[in-house]
UniProtKB/TrEMBL annotation:
Domain of life from the UniProt record: Bacteria
Transmembrane segments: 52-71, 83-105
Protein name per Swiss-Prot or TrEMBL: Low molecular weight protein antigen 6 PH domain-containing protein
Keyword Transmembrane attributed: yes
InterPro entries: CFP-6_PH (IPR019692)
Pfam hit, one: bPH_6
Organism of this sequence: Anaeromyxobacter dehalogenans (strain ATCC BAA-258 / DSM 21875 / 2CP-1)
Length: 208
């Protein structure tokens, strides 16, 4: 019993530390593009891999703890745990390991490509093409520091400010997005204008 309490305490401390690291990263200014972007070429927006790696480790730690508790319980009281308990614990471990593997794959593959004709989200399992004219809504969340794009088909894209190349994205979005989309959310339009004009991150806003 005491080992279980210690394991869950360690897990809780680690998860709070991981969340604090994410929040600290969001408060940083947007990074400049590593490679100068030229009009006519696709602009690649890639989230810093530290976010996915933190999520990966956050999933691995409880997987290790659950596996250790299963082995210890089976060795001490195999009849009490039983095959059903072991099967349930194994399912939890496999689920957490799957999340960790997905986050690693996301860190290596996931990105958004910005073209003159629209956006292309490349994920772990597929791609989503969104023309500029297909964007139905653009909003800006100053607390979470990201742009939220909604298409006319109901698909969603999130673009964090910490991604390198966001000033170039903002300038292109101001030219390509439909006028009604920009006028529908003044906070998002002002955030794009500030980002494109200064090359830095907009001030925090409460708009969503």
């Amino acid at each position: 019993m005491r080992e279980s309490l210690i394991a869950f305490a360690v897990l809780a401390v680690f998860m709070f530390a991981a969340q604090a690291a994410r929040l600290r990263g969001r408060r940083r200014r947007a990074a400049p593009s590593h490679v100068p972007w030229k009009p006519g070429q696709p602009l690649v927006l890639r989230t810093p891999p530290r976010n996915a790696l933190l999520s990966c480790v956050t999933a691995l730690v409880p997987a290790v703890l659950v596996a250790a508790l299963m082995i210890r319980s089976w060795g001490a009281q195999p009849r009490r745990v039983g095959p059903v308990g072991m099967a349930g614990g194994a399912a939890v471990v496999l689920l957490l390991l799957s999340v960790a593997v997905f986050q690693l794959a996301s860190a290596a593959r996931a990105h958004v490509m910005v073209h003159d004709t629209g956006l292309e989200r490349v994920g772990v399992f597929g791609r989503l093409l969104v023309g500029w004219g297909s964007v139905a809504k653009l909003s800006f969340n100053g607390a979470q520091r990201w742009f939220h794009v909604t298409t006319d088909q109901g698909a969603h894209l999130w673009l964090p400010l910490e991604v390198a190349g966001m000033p170039e994205f903002a300038a292109l979005a101001l030219r390509r997005l439909p006028r009604q989309v920009l006028e529908a959310d003044p906070a998002a339009r002002e955030a794009l204008q500030e980002l494109a004009g200064t090359g830095g991150a907009p001030r925090s806003r409460s708009a969503m």
